Amino acid sequence: MSVLIFIDHADGHIKKASLEALTYGAAVAKQLGVPAAGLLLGTVQDDLAALGKYGISTIHQANNEAFNHLDAQVYSKAIAEAVTTTGATVLVFSHNQTGKAVAPRVAARLKAGVVTGAVALPDTASGFVVKKSVFSAKAFAKVNITSAIKVVSLNPNSFKIEAGEGTATINQLAITPAAGAVKVTAVNKVSGEVPLTEAEVIVSGGRGLKGPENWGLLEDLARPLHAALACSRPVADSHWRPHHEHVGQTGVQVAPNLYIAVGISGAIQHLAGVNRSKVIVVINKDPEAPFFKAADYGIVGDAFEILPKLTEEIKKI
Ligand code: FAD
């Protein structure tokens, strides 16, 4: 028995969500009294051995550059093979875009039970009971995985990254990438931006900002906070902002430490994508705006007056 944690990466670097998954997987292994190992497909510039500080003893690597672009079918076949080779019984993913695409496919290949979007360590005293958020994080469900191999994906930002001492041993796995049914022909990067799903702080704008020409006010606030920009759906639908910035039920689901919503009413479909944020700040001129009910801090007032003042104050910190 062992726990295997999938290490996701992009542009040669390990994603922050994977550090959470490693810490979580190591904690699951400790609970079960079994070793924890990481699994990396492809190559990264980061020091793999240093990942031992998150509590894992070994990194299994399939060191083939063909794995550097995500192909869910190719990945799931390779990961299933790695599980069989290493004899892992618990497989942990981050519930990010990669985990969402790959974890269920791997589970199907291994005939394993899968719980996606876990928010806490499993209760191993009464089986392998995993708590997960459901109904757009409006409720929680507890699911017991009874299969021999168990697959869990962890909601980003729901488990604290903890680093201690230690280095991991690197073990090369001879896994040949399968021929994919799709081929990546080009990758268009949106440069200079923090990816929304990895962002610690998000500054988000809605229709209350009146038009795309006013987004400079949000950019001014986002810069000193090193924040990513987001928007409500009508803003993206009106082409004020690109669609990859649209958050909510039908957009990106985010869980930053701080979500600042400016001129957004707080419709249930918007909240569905942001209500896992640790702290929500709402700026809205309507004191009855529904978003205030979900807010930790609220400012009632005109965004065009508040934003410059807020930005100036934040720059002083
Ligand atoms: P509005 O509802 O127009 O609100 C604008 C807000 O700005 C108001 O609260 C107003 O008081 C405030 N305001 C105006 N002027 C100022 C000012 N000067 N200063 C400060 N505040 C000001 N929406 C999403 O966002 N994400 C989704 O994923 C999503 N999915 C959907 C799926 C379905 C099936 C459906 C039916 C809808 C979905 N929607 C989604 C749309 C959602 O229902 C709302 O219509 C939308 O979120 C409203 O966007 P908004 O808050 O920017 O605009």
Automatic annotation (TrEMBL):
Biological process (GO) annotations held by this record are:
fatty acid beta-oxidation using acyl-CoA dehydrogenase
Q: Which GO terms describe its molecular function?
A: electron transfer activity; flavin adenine dinucleotide binding
Q: Which residues bind FAD?
A: 207, 232-233, 263-270, 284
Gene3D superfamilies cross-referenced by the UniProt entry = HUPs, TPP-binding domain
Boundaries of every Electron transfer flavoprotein alpha/beta-subunit N-terminal domain copy: 3-194
| Keyword terms of this UniProt record | Electron transport, FAD, Flavoprotein, Transport
Q: Which cofactor does it need?
A: FAD
Give the record's cofactor note, including how many are bound.
Binds 1 FAD per dimer.
Family of this protein: Belongs to the ETF alpha-subunit/FixB family.
PANTHER family per UniProt: ELECTRON TRANSFER FLAVOPROTEIN ALPHA, ELECTRON TRANSFER FLAVOPROTEIN SUBUNIT ALPHA, MITOCHONDRIAL
Q: What is this protein called?
A: Electron transfer flavoprotein subunit alpha/FixB family protein
The taxonomic lineage of its organism, from the top, reads: Bacteria, Pseudomonadati, Bacteroidota, Chitinophagia, Chitinophagales
